[in-house]
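Anyone have tokens for PhoH family protein? Sequence:
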Amino acid sequence: MSKEKSLSSVSKAKIFVLDTNVLLHDPQCLHKFEDNTIAIPVEVLEELDGKKSAPGELGFSARKIHRDLRALFDEGLETPPELNGQGSSALSRKLPNGGRLVVVINDYMVAGESESEVLNRLKATLVNLEKMDSRILASVFFLKEVCPDSRVILVTKDANMALKGIALGLEVQDYMNDKVTTAKLGGGCKTIKVENADYERFLEEQGVDLSPELTSHLYLNEYIYISNGEFSEPARYRGDGQVDALILGTDVGVKIPKGIRIYPLNSEQRMLMDALLDEDIKLVTCSGKAGTGKTLVSIAMALFQTIGEDNLYERVFISRPLVNIGKDTGALPGTLEEKMAPYIAPFFDNLEVLFSNRKVVKQEEPTNEDAHINRITSTRKRKKAMAKLAKQPSKQESAEEENKPRKPFQFLFDYGMVEVEAMTFIRGRSLSNTIFIIDEAQNLTPHEAKTVVSRMAEGSKVILLGDPYQVDSMFLDAWSNGLVHTAQRLKGTEITAHLELSTGVRSELADLAADLL
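Reply: yep, here.
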């Protein structure tokens, strides 16, 4: 049997050729192509090898792919025997889902002289076939020639690679497994029109049972509007036809201890506050354009439940993906908090707003409110704070510290009630009795989002915030990032809630820029 026939017999359906970025984006992708053939050019393995020492999720993904491939091929090779002694053009292995994995070496590139008119044209077009992207494209053409009865598809998340493939006449697809379609991504809150009697009952009893015809298209914990004529009220669907009113009324505010009282500025913010104040909701995803109040409301509700009288949580963790906009400034000096400071500056801006009614310059005698905060702070955190205070600084340091103005919210960090956490170090942790706020979550990959959410232990809540249309990460877009992926996959479960904010409240200019620029 000829070499071409042998490879063609490997798969008579579709052959998906995976680019390196697909494997790094989703290390589990080998098991998500059903019963089709997955082809990995050997050049992709070379690129993965260069990423295995990278910090964070990138290096983890590269190492996991290597381990998974090694485990599969350690179980035994299934290379067609006709290829033995002729130069191995493919290593083949069946996958548990019924598909097949093939690691491809382009024999035409190895020989140095192309037997293919198509590959010769490719050399003339791309000029430099030493580049990895060019060699991967050459492997796709090689497979098309040796498997003429199969449909060969290049799968890549690199826009430039995709454009080159399309220009050369290849069939190219994005990795679609974790993408959310435009229809699923949003469209605002649904409106349920009800009769006068049902609307009046909803207002009087703070809830109403509706017929299945009106609620069959709703998912559990979905936020909606109950409408009757020109009147409308925000509500939440609780399942089995039950629609409940929100926790907070229109003019009801929440007082932050030692800070301001915050009121919802519109119905969307009331919905968000309802989800954040519900103890039974363990995950909240909130998407919306800049200036809608996502971060401010989330921080305010987190602090209210942490340092308020109920003290449901021990601490608030804040973080965001370390993705730069524009030119990277390089490594930052200092402690973890100092390194993270530029990235979490938006949190500090919001804390300034929440505590703008107090101007604390130096540590004063504890008030009753301070005593309350001391009581609710965990023993471990108090000991840590006391150890700090027990250190005896030099006279010069004391003078500098005394003259240095203190932020009105600094006590939150002094007592360990608010902590800054880098996403890089989240793996392996188990966070209990914690509210974890992640801003700019649209820059998380689905795998990173899963890693974060799975760190939450008993008594914890995680809040993912972001704008799906402001993705800064190279291989993510509005439909494949961790924020929308998490919302889509967990939508309709009892302990999750998902919201979209569209009304800007920051300023008229900010709202205009978010809509038109």
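The chain has 22 helices and 19 strands.
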